[in-house]
Structure formats: structure tokens, C-alpha cells
Design a protein that fits this description.
This protein has helices at 12-16, 26-38, 61-67, 86-94, 108-115, 119-135, 158-171, 187-199, 218-227, 255-265, 273-287, 294-300; strands spanning 7-10, 43-44, 47-48, 81-82, 99-105, 139-145, 149-150, 154-155, 175-180, 207-211, 232-235. The chain is of the alpha/beta class. The longest helix is centred in the middle third of the chain and has 17 residues, at 119-135. The chain binds 3-hydroxy-3-methylglutaryl-coenzyme A and magnesium ion (MG). The site of 3-hydroxy-3-methylglutaryl-coenzyme A has 25 residues, from helix 4, helix 5 and strand 6.
């Protein structure tokens, strides 16, 4: 049985743009986020408070975040931001962020490349971040990368993912997002991981899925997750994205492709597909190349 409604966690402005080589002007990012809100997206990941040298594209977080105040006028829009450590938390809280995300890894190689830490050292780095955020009533999402496969380590054992997922929940994260960072998952693997998490006491209701579409499996994987009871799905407008610290990762599941499928299934998202498509077409013009989303291409074809 499928859920009647799901929440889309829009990551185009963060996961999408972080991979763009050319720095996008701050005003364009703010306009992109505003248009996403107008299109009905209610959770829009805005930026990251990471080291600017690690992700130069998002080095303007201090300039961007204050521009988003007016988006509150559009409705009840949540604007989560990525925060790896206490320095990042200080920066985010100083600007009034009310939702943060820490981002761990199921594999040692990616933890080293993305966070300059071992898996356990990164959990130790997150511990005071989550504790302070919770004390301040700030909502915390815990991303978990490389839940299915890792470009350096190959297939990732389910038990290894469950251990880190459990640890993130034990730190106090309000929700998890299971990342298929390089897009290698298939539906059977998704079901196996969700079942193993349930057995370890991690409920599906607080677990989102985050699929990249490298092998064209993101929608099939999403459907498998919905059938398992998942109600939060990450996607990026126009299928923007990738990860600068994970070779071979392509963009996230395109939000338009997701909404097209959900509309067909009669699942409510609150998103206006035409307005969203127009936003992705507009952003593609700004970036100077077409959106990889099949739905954007189909709906915008002359
Ligand atoms: P580090 O070099 O180990 O940092 O990097 P450090 O703690 O040793 O500090 C070194 C210097 O950096 C210090 O400055 C700190 O103040 C400064 P100094 O005292 O030398 O002058 N610093 C900072 N400055 C600004 N903001 C900060 C910050 N932290 C330290 N937050 C660190 C460790 C975590 C900072 C670094 O590895 C980093 O920024 N990594 C971010 C990588 C990233 O953003 N990756 C992409 C997001 S993850 C993703 O895309 C996957 C996801 O989509 C899910 C999926 O698909 O799987 C979420
Ligand atoms: Mg990602």
C-alpha cells in the first residue's frame, strides 16, 4: 500500500549546485529557491555551512541565507542547511537557521574524502552539533552516504550501513536520509536495507531516501521505498547535481520525474509541475545547458 501524501525534500540548490564548476551568482540562487517555493516545494535545502575551500560553490552561504527571509511570505517553507561541525553550526545559528543536516558516511573511504575523518571520528564531530541543535529546538536531519555502493570500496554491506544509521539516530537526529551517493542501488537492495533498519529499531517513518540517478534506477528505487512505507523523498529540480567528493556520481532523482510518477499514482505532493518545470528550464538557461530530466525535456519540448 502506498502513502496518500509524501514530502519532497528538494536538494537542487545544495546537492545540485554544489557540483557546478562555475560559481552561480548568489542572486540567481536566491531566485531559484524563491521559484521552487512558489512551485509548492515546502522543504528546500538552501546551502551548506562547510569549509569554503571544500565546496567553493556554496561559499556564499552568509550572503545567500539572509536573502531567503522573503520566502517565508510564500508559505510555510522549511530551509534546511548542511552543517558538518560546530563551526558550521555557529555560522548557521547566527543567521537564524532552524533546520540543519549533518552528513555521515557508511564507508571509511568516503568519510575520509568528504569529512577528513574516520566514520567514528565524524560521529564524534557530529555529537556536539546535534546536542546543541536539539537544545535549541533546531530540527536535525542525519544524512548517511554510500548506503548501497562506494566507488572505492564497492558494494557496501547492509550491516555496516545499519551500524552508522543507528549511531546517527542515537545522537538524536530527528530523521535520516539514506544516500545512494553514486546511484548504484536497485529496488531489491533498497527493500533489504529498509528491512534491516527496521529490525535494528530504525523506523521507516523517520527515514527519507536520497537517490542519485547514475544508472537510471532512482525512480524504481523510490517506488520500492514508498511500498515499504517511506514518506520523505529527496530530489533535485531538473535532476541537477552530483557530489564533488564522489567520482562517478551524477545528479539526484529529478523532482519533475518524481512528481510525474506520484501524480500518476495519485500521491499528493503539493507541487505545481508546470511551475517547477519552468523553474528548471529557467535555471538551465542560467547554467547554459539543458536539464537532464526526462520530464523537464518532455514538458518543455516545443
Ligand atoms: P578539516 O580540514 O578537517 O577541518 O575539514 P578542521 O576541523 O581541521 O578545520 C580546519 C580549518 O577549517 C579551521 O580554520 C576551521 O575553522 C575551518 P583555521 O583555524 O585553520 O583557520 N573550518 C571551517 N570554516 C568554515 N565553516 C566550517 C568549518 N569547519 C572548519 N564549517 C570539514 C573538515 C568537515 C570542515 C571539511 O571536510 C568540509 O567542509 N567538508 C564538506 C564536504 C561537503 O560539503 N561535501 C558535500 C556534501 S555531502 C553530499 O553531497 C552527500 C549527500 O548529498 C548525500 C549523498 O548523496 O550521499 C548529503
Ligand atoms: Mg547527494
Amino acid at each position: 500500500e502506498l502513502p496518500a501524501r509524501i514530502r519532497i525534500h528538494e536538494v537542487g540548490a545544495r546537492d545540485g549546485l554544489q557540483n557546478e564548476k562555475t560559481v552561480v551568482p548568489t542572486a540567481i540562487k536566491a531566485e531559484f529557491i524563491r521559484r521552487l517555493a512558489v512551485a509548492g516545494l515546502s522543504t528546500i535545502e538552501a546551502t551548506s555551512f562547510v569549509h569554503p575551500k571544500w565546496v567553493p560553490q556554496l561559499a556564499d552561504a552568509e550572503q545567500l541565507f539572509p536573502l531567503l527571509g522573503e520566502i517565508a511570505d510564500v508559505g510555510d517553507v522549511a530551509l534546511p542547511v548542511l552543517v558538518p561541525n560546530e563551526r558550521g553550526l555557529d555560522r548557521a545559528l547566527a543567521l537564524g537557521a532552524r533546520r540543519i543536516a549533518v552528513f555521515g558516511s557508511a564507508t571509511e573511504t568516503f568519510a575520509a574524502r568528504n569529512l577528513n575523518r574516520t566514520v567514528d571520528e565524524s560521529l564524534a564531530m557530529f555529537e556536539p552539533v546535534v546536542a546543541r541543535a536539539k537544545a535549541d529546538r533546531v530540527h536535525v536531519r542525519g544524512y548517511l552516504s554510500m548506503c548501497f555502493g562506494d566507488p572505492w570500496e564497492g558494494a557496501v554491506p547492509v550491516a555496516q550501513v545499519v551500524r552508522v544509521a543507528r549511531a546517527l539516530m542515537d545522537l538524536g537526529c530527528d530523521e535520516l536520509s539514506l544516500g545512494d551517493t553514486i546511484g548504484v542501488a536497485t529496488p531489491g537492495h533498497v527493500r533489504a536495507l529498509l528491512s534491516a533498519l527496521n529490525e535494528a529499531g530504525v523506523p521507516t517513518g523517520t527515514t527519507g531516501v536520497h537517490f542519485h540517478d547514475t544508472y537510471g534506477q532512482a525512480l524504481s528505487n523510490t517506488l520500492a521505498a514508498l511500498q515499504h512505507g517511506v514518506t520523505t523523498v529527496d530530489a533535485s529540480a531538473g535532476g541537477l547535481g552530483g557530489c564533488p567528493y564522489a567520482k562517478s556520481a551524477t545528479g539526484n532523482l529529478a523532482t519533475e520525474d518524481l512528481v510525474w510518477m506520484l501524480q500518476g499514482l495519485g500521491i499528493e505532493t503539493g507541487v505545481d509541475l508546470d511551475a517547477l518545470t519552468a523553474t528548471s528550464v529557467w535555471l538551465a538557461e542560467q547554467l547554459g545547458r539543458p536539464s537532464p530530466s526526462r520530464t523537464v525535456r518532455a514538458l518543455s519540448a516545443q
